[in-house]
Amino acid sequence: MNKYQHYYSFNRIVQLILDVALIALAFKLSNLFRYGTVELDHQYSIFFVLFALVWWIVSGFSNFVFRIDGVLPVSKNLSKLLNAFLLHAFILASCIVIFNLEEISRLLLLYTYISTAMLIGLSRILFSHLSRYFSKSDMVYSRYVVIGSGQSAVNLYKTLSNEDNPGTKFMGFFDDEPDANSPHIGQVKGSIEDLQEYCLQHSIDEIYYAKPLNDKDQIDMLTNFCDDNFVYFRIVPDFSAIVQKDVNMYFYHNIPMISVRKEPLEQVTNRFVKRVFDIVFSLAVILLVFPIVLPIIALAIRLESKGPIFFKQLRPGKKNRLFVCYKFRTMRVNNLTEVQATKNDPRITRVGSFLRKTNLDEFPQFFNVLLGDMSVVGPRPNLVSQLDHYSKVITKYKMRHFVTPGITGYAQVSGYRGETKEVHLMEKRVEYDVKYMENWSFMMDMKIIFLTVWNMIKGEKNAY
User: What DSSP string describes 375-410?
Assistant: First the structure.
């Protein structure tokens, strides 16, 4: 469906331009409410550029995590928009501190955010309705038919008819031997012999071939017909017999290849971006934060219980390779280190309980990140005993070790952390870990980090 990428790209470009215009209007209105004039002073004008630039980054490069375009349902669109605003506020607040822009009026900033949210929110609703109107009008219709009426053809029809493919109009199936008991039998317009005349009479734009690829003469005939009549001919291979889930298909030179699992971190550039971020982020924490928190936490740990400040334990990492994982000690010294902590666990000290609830016990793991054993974001490294146990009872458990484990992860910010005394709780963790692997993006990592910080501030009931 590459042709729709142009539609989506055009949508996003138009929306980004409109967003910048609306942000400028919001700044003018906010300044009018606060100071009685629409003329911005020099500092506020510079702040507008920063505000718009951060929004452009968040909304322009986070299409997977925060998809903001006109073809989503309004409720989903606004929900994604809210997430984008939260990330924008987090980045902007960081910029205010870094660039020392603290002289900007807090009330003015509040007015600006409210105005921007209202204007962009209303524009999204309007844009969504306009997109649906134009996608259902004849001037942008792309009429298509599907050759075949089996399960593969029906699946293709359902895929092309969903909300992610605007501007298409299904005109019918064509099959020499349709299944009379099929619920879609009423949509079969005729045999393949009837196809050519039907296409000419109804100005068909695209033909999708969803039958087994064993009739070369038929495919050649249809190809020639489409070439002669300016109709796009697309062959949809049916791999349903051998592949039971979404796959990625690509070409290496002229050889088609199928990857049965989507793994963005297979790409060297993605791994490089993630590793560079890990190094920069972990160094920043180690140099700027660790010297402040270490003496305080170390003193609190020592005052409450005897034993080392740091706790070291072997954990399985990428491809099950064991590494030494560092944490602040949160328990009294004991011989049950391979037993998972439980609620009201007597081994946990009062200081340890606080460290666990605030995730401060994980701070030493930034050294693991710097060493390359861990990443800032990734599946949490479980106990060795858990690896041995859950590998036997959860089918996809080992898949989570395709990537480097993280200090925080998608499962943790989605509510699945803490004790896993029931198998289904670990299954949910694994499910979210696999989702993370298959849908990784840099902006997804940023969202998880933001949510982790937010959870640290508000506290988590499952952190013990």
Answer: EEESPPP--HHHHHHHHHH-TTGGGGGGS--EEE-H
